[in-house]
Amino acid sequence: MTLPQQDSFAVQTQNLRKVFGSKVAVRGLTLTVRPGEIFGFLGPNGAGKSTSIKMLLGLAKPTAGEAFVLGSPSGDVEIRRKIGFLPENFRFYEWLTPAELLHLHGRLCGVPDAVLSKRVPALIDLVGLTPHIDKRLQNFSKGMMQRAGLAQALIHEPEIIFLDEPTSGLDPLGRRMVRDIIRAQRDRGATVFLNSHLLSEIEITCDQVVFIREGEVVTTRDMRVQHEETIRVEVRARKVSPECVAGLSRWGSNVQVDEDLLTFTTPQRQLLPDILRFLVGSGAEVYQFTPQRLSLEELFMNIMGEDRGF
Amino acid sequence: MGVWIMAGITFREAARKKILWTALLAGVAFLLVFGIGLRFQVGDFRNSAVPPFLRYQVISAMLMIGLYTVDLLAVVMTTLTSVDTISGEITSGTIHAIATKPLPRWQILIGKWLGFVAMAAAYVAIMFWGTIAEGYWIGGVMAQHPVRGALLVFLECIIALSVTFMFGTWFSTLSSGVITLGLLGVAFLGGWLEQMSGFTEGSRLAMVGIISSLIMPSEAVWRRAAFEMESPLSGSLQFSPFADISIPSSAMIGYACVYLLIALAIAVYHFGERDL
Questions:
Q1: Domain A11-222 of CATH type 3.40.50.10860
Q2: What separation, in Å, do the N-terminal and C-terminal C-alpha atoms of chain A show?
Q3: 3-class SS at B231?
């Protein structure tokens, strides 16, 4: 089935698939990213995240399926003028200074020299490399290289920016800088496609996240909406019978008992009074009943399972 | 535009490689030794009864051996400096930041190729004309057609470069280097076998040499260069190891040019199609 070209989406894929020999890296990725949003792309190691990004950027050819970026087929050369990309573990010719690096990438993107002469120092300042402006990349730490890589991804003021592990190697101040830059890009109207292992960063930065496993979307979550379907409940109680524990499965999942601590997750807030009545009715002596919203990390663990090697 | 930006950055990248400076140092050492050797030989001849005609032929043969050394240095230097530019940047991920910019992949590859072409041209110019100048100023001899010779040595470098690029789009740095140097070895051996076949009129030996030249025509290009540079008398009298016993035809030079273009076209095609 041919995907209708959608200008209204920054990214749109339909059953995107990539096979290396007998190994299926991406099974059938279907997702949409709206313009101007910060999109989090989550999944355990080997879930096909990097391969998916490579297909979106034209670095790898899909075995099957379709993908559009800013309304053009992925890999289209001209549309790359509007795309910025920070690869994971950014590396480049080590004898360049950060200014030379940015001038080179700006020229490759067709940015006039007059514009670059103003934009380059501003970007170097933005990523905090002004004190190192005369150093060569060979003297840069991993975190400084990431900063330089981030600057090259922004040099042509792209409409969409793909960031693959942008906070890798950065200290807390550097992570905050990246977060601020990402938000500034969204405020400018750009779309940010973010792949990161730092779920706490994703949680406070992204507008929408998708969880993928084995190259397929498992679930999508709009971070701007208060979700009530995932509530973790901690109960301190005595005299909790095995029948009571078994009975909790009617309202929730992931039921665990550790001495007097009982935890489980439940999909709806309005079930909480019924659950409490059930516990008391089954003879449990309840001292504490605390419903908590699941963090993204807990949600991730629930969806992916704790043994997935994340 | 993208091609020239890539050519410029590749030239600067290549110029920073230790192997280039090692090859240049080796070249300078060679020019020194060659110049000293020529001066000693000329001095010895002054005090001897060797007839001028024979003196000229011996010095000419020395010049040809010098130029052959330059040829070998240039080809090996071109191969070793360029061997990791494609495969190495794919392995390290450096290529990702470039290949996502708005320029077609063929422009990346051709730009890199042109950068190394410029570097090889500079190296050949320095070494080749340095040797020719020493032959003229110290030894008093001049190659018959030095421009043709320089162009053919340059062509040989570009053949090795294109083959290195072609394998670099498929294999790792080490593998593509080993394969290219192996092919140059086959060409070297085949070229000398073909030369030897001229003494015995052994058609089977000549056939081995011709097949080797078809597999990798670099050495055949050198033997044509030698033919163009040697004086006709020196060649026919077989004073030098490159005497015109078995001369590669113009068709073989044409084949070498087509071979180069096909290797480059395969490199462009495969680099454009492969995952990075």
A1: no
A2: 34
A3: coil
First CA to last CA distance, chain B: 23
A contacts of B5 (beta carbons < 8 Å): 104, 107-108
Residue B127 · residue B28 · CB < 8 Å? no
Instruction: Indicate the domain borders of chain A.
Output: 11-222, 231-293
Mean per-residue pLDDT of chain A = 88
User: What would the two tokens of residue A220 be?
Assistant: 């999508």
Residue of A87, A137, A77, A86 whose CA lies nearest to A109? A77
> What's phi and psi for A289, nearest 5 deg?
-140, 100
Decide if A11-222 and A231-293 have a common fold: no
Helix ranges, chain A (H): 49-57, 98-108, 113-126, 142-154, 172-188, 199-205, 242-247, 272-281, 296-304
From chain A residues 20-59, the ones with a CB under 8 A of any chain B CB are 54, 57-59
Domain boundaries, given as residue ranges, for chain B: 2-273
Q: CA–CA separation, A160 vs B204, rounded Å?
A: 65
Do A150 and A127 meet the contact criterion of CB atoms below 8 Å apart?
yes
Note the maximum CA span of chain A.
78
Residue-level length of chain B: 276
The answer to whether the CB atoms of B5 and A104 lie below 8 A apart is yes
Q: CA–CA distance from B143 to each of A236, B33, B120, B240 (Å)? A: 98, 19, 21, 13
Q: Quick check: B102 and A110 in contact, CB under 8 A?
A: yes
Query: CA of A82: which chain B residue's CA is closest?
Result: B102
- Residue with structure tokens 């454009």? B272
Contact with chain B for residue A132, Cβ under 8 A: no
**DSSP 8-state code for residue B247:** P
Q: What is the largest CA-CA distance in chain B?
A: 71
Question: Distances in Å between the alpha carbon of A125 and those of A132, A170, A189?
Answer: 10, 16, 21
Specify the pTM: 0.83
Q: Which residues of B touch A (CB under 8 A)?
A: 1-2, 5, 9, 12-13, 16, 92-94, 96-104, 273, 275-276
Residue of A nearest to B96 (CA): A87
Q: Which helix or strand (DSSP H or E) is residue B211 part of?
A: helix B203-215
Query: A39 in helix, strand or coil?
Result: strand
Tell me if B271 sits within 8 A of B111, measured CB to CB.
no
- What pLDDT is recorded for position A228? 55
CB B85 within 8 A of CB B112: yes
Q: Report the pLDDT value the prediction gives residue A310, as an integer from 0 to 100.
A: 44
Q: Which of A124, A23, A95, A117 is nearest to B18 (CA)?
A: A95
d(CA A213, CA A49): 9
Give whole-number Cα distances, A80 to A110, A152, B103, B156, B272, in Å. 11, 14, 8, 37, 16
CA–CA separation, A125 vs B58, rounded Å? Answer: 67
ipTM: 0.81
A85 touches chain B (CB under 8 A): yes
pLDDT tens column, A256-287: 888 889 988 887 878 889 999 999 999 899 99
Give the Cα separation of B271 and B86 in Å (integer).
9
Q: In terms of C-beta density within 10 A (0-12 exposed, 13-18 middle, 19 or more buried), how is residue A270 classed?
A: exposed
A231-293 — its CATH code? Answer: 3.30.70.100
Whether the pLDDT of residue A40 is over 50: the answer is: yes
